[in-house]
Amino acid sequence: MKKDVSFDSAGLKLAAHLYAPDSANGARLPAIVIGHPGSGVKEQAAGLYAKLLAEQGYLTLAFDAAYQGESEGDPRGLEDPGQRVEDIKAAVLYLSARDDVDLNRIGVLGICASGGYAITAAVADHRIKAVATISAVDISRLFRLGADGRQPAGVFQSMLEAAAMARTTQARGAPMGVIPLFPDEEQARAGGQHLYEGWEYYCTDRARHERSAKFFTWNSVDRIASSDAFRFIEMISPRPLLMIVGTAALTSWMTADAIADAREPKELCSIDGATHVALYDKDEFVMPAIRKLAEFFDTKPSAASNPVTTPVS
């Protein structure tokens, strides 16, 4: 069962979908906040995972980030890591105020950029009892280093110069400019796997949605530059951490780096053959991830001394 709900995040009203299992029967339920990718909305990957995990017995909440989707906030298309982290904490607060939620079993699942935001939120918010990620990305590393980690440093420095100019221009009365996130099909095909599969997901009938972000504002860039999603990942311990990544994802190095720095209990789950975006909606990859997530959120923290790596095919 899905219904529209809303909650406040730093003075902004966020739009959300709450999914409940059919067999709730008035019991207090384990609950999961689910954050969407950087350019996504609650109706896309986050909503799919919310629906499927609700079918596994969880109360799930997929929401639109501030400044995006149906949520409040101007300028539209602002990607503010600090606000995104606050949005997750506000979603946890919404769930913790409900009579049908087990306060000892509130977890967070972050997809893509929300994987990084979920880790940052959990570091300081002990209401979050377990953290999981899908195709996790630290958006600062993505912008600075590229999807494969090999982007020349000058690319992001040029973006910071443009962002500074945009702020100055705005101070003089002009509108804040925007950065298009997706090129046309020909440029997307020429841009490599990560760019093309992002274009295919967000810009074709595969998953296109009228409210998903097609641009970020230029004043997103310097906010992104100074964030560091995985910096304090070790502080999640002793709460459990699960990071799911595709073996064919160009961004998998970010998950590998993050899980190496995390403390126990932690688990890396590799989905054989999955690319970064394939884990958003492809059944052959999503369903093994759902089974692993359902098992993870149903498990108490362990005292294991060695990291666990689980290949899934």
From TrEMBL:
InterPro entries to which the protein is assigned, alphabetical: AB_hydrolase_fold, Polyketide_trans_af380, Xaa-Pro-like_dom
SUPFAM superfamilies linked to this entry: alpha/beta-Hydrolases
Pfam families in the cross-refs: Peptidase_S15
Protein name: Alpha/beta hydrolase
Keyword terms of this UniProt record: Hydrolase
GO molecular function, one term: hydrolase activity
Keyword Hydrolase carried by entry: yes
Domain Xaa-Pro dipeptidyl-peptidase-like: 11-141
